[in-house]
């Protein structure tokens, strides 16, 4: 190093940021990558689990169908309980060293990290999704069935879009938790932000200064992500008002019917 | 008389020990407009919900073009597509625009192409006076407007028979008229309908037959004139007099 470490707190922080900026950034990138990909796959896993959990079985269904649906639900319950009931740090150790010690397969630490975060998030999202599906008004299902939709079509076009919209805040929560919790992956040497923070701290005995920088980066990541998700929610909700379709008013050929409240502008009640 | 569309035979429904429908029998021919009246809790909604199998009957038969659709072998979803239902609480799809509410069944259930669905939706939305609102979401509409869209959605499926379960009960009084007018137009066009309603004057004017339900049975049935001006069953008399006085 060309320069000497300054004495003051601010000086030290600036020094570390200047000299190790690229290390912090590389860590932040990997943290974000694992959190984003892990949350995305976790949501997918959670959606599928939630959908299976809410398949209705009635006495009219065939015995094999009832058996397989019940079995699938049981397996998913075990999965959810296990991954919600053990720390992610322990899951990372089990997953990574399980492969190292008992197979010839050597996953990269990044891949191991993504898999662990995905499976862990999936367990939480399974419950969230199940709640999200049940939270959609029963009338929506009835409306869909009444026009002849199958259970699958009802789910796909009517229930899931609303369930997913309803659980968007929890998806956002999970992403933010994952950004922070990827820090535990340093136990299997994933080179994310925490890992680099520790490494830099050890070089100069500047633990407090290094983790000041690390915490600022985490804060920036979580803040930006939560804002972006908020924007996405707004986008899904659509515009507050709508345009009245401009059609020839003479096209109201069914002149027998008179409507008390003819099209007003903007947003009626 | 032409072939029956629906024959309800010995229909029963119980929830646990509660026998809500007991041995209901009636037949629907094309063009019939059947109004069903009766006190709250008499089983009117349950009857409609059994007719399109939203609720599975505990016993009896529903013959659709001669086939019992309660047989396990018969496809309930295909049958439901032919029997439209309009709910008290509208049940429009909240995640879709007015237009998509009307086209989704045509494209996904009837598997018709998009242009056809669009045309059909516009035709029926125009009929109910809601075509200027194709881009609106259900949450942005008044109750009366929602119900008119719900009727258009049901019409888009071009059903053989349309069921109405108290279509105006959830509406503010000033919106009741616009919905009843739409149903009246359908009646003039010869649509086959079963209408559960508390709008007695409307039921009398629009229907070809009136059924009075009491405690899960058809207590009396006949022409609207008969039921409303000269009821035979004391229960019918009591119900009507109580209702007219309110
Ligand atoms: N899903 C249900 N579970 C249990 N009881 C029900 C259910 N639906 C309706 N009932 C009962 O069936 C009876 C008839 O209800 P309903 O058909 O809604 O009457 P109506 O529409 O004539 O007011 C009521 O006593 C009601 O409590
Ligand atoms: Mg009712």
Give the SSE map.
The complex is a heterodimer of chains A (269) and B (246).
Chain A: H1 9-53, H2 63-85, H3 88-102, H4 109-135, H5 138-146, H6 151-181, H7 193-204, H8 207-237
Helix pairs in contact in A: 1-4, 1-6, 1-7, 1-8, 2-4, 3-4, 4-6, 5-6, 6-8, 7-8
Chain B: E1 6-15, E2 18-28, E3 33-38, H1 44-51, E4 59-64, E5 67-68, H2 76-82, E6 83-86, H3 98-109, H4 114-127, H5 143-156, E7 161-165, H6 173-188, E8 193-196, H7 200-206, E9 209-214, E10 217-222, H8 224-229, H9 234-245
Helix pairs in contact in B: 3-4, 3-5, 4-5, 5-6
The complex binds adenosine-5'-diphosphate and magnesium ion.
Description of the structure:
The complex is a heterodimer of chains A (269) and B (246). Chain A has 269 residues and is an all-alpha fold. Chain A has a single domain (21-253), classed as MetI-like fold, CATH 1.10.3720. In chain A, 72% of the residues lie in helices and 0% in strands. Chain A is built from eight helices and no strands. In chain A, helix 1 (9-53) packs antiparallel against helix 7, helix 4 (109-135) packs across helix 6 (151-181) and helix 6 (151-181) packs antiparallel against helix 8 (207-237). The longest helix of chain A has 45 residues, at 9-53. Chain A is flat, with a radius of gyration of 26 Å. The model of chain A is unreliable at 248-269 (pLDDT under 50). Chain B is α/β, with parallel strands linked by helices and 246 residues long. Chain B has helices spanning 44-51, 76-82, 98-109, 114-127, 143-156, 173-188, 200-206, 224-229, 234-245; strands spanning 6-15, 18-28, 33-38, 59-64, 67-68, 83-86, 161-165, 193-196, 209-214, 217-222. In chain B, strands 6-7-8-3-9-10 form a six-stranded mixed sheet, sandwiched between helices. In chain B, a hairpin with a 2-residue loop joins strand 4 (59-64) and strand 5 (67-68). Chain B is globular. Chains A and B meet through helix 5 and helix 6 of A and helix 2, helix 3, helix 5 and helix 6 of B. The complex binds adenosine-5'-diphosphate and magnesium ion. Magnesium ion binds at residues 44-45, 166 of chain B. Adenosine-5'-diphosphate is lined by residues 15, 18, 20, 38, 40-46 of chain B.
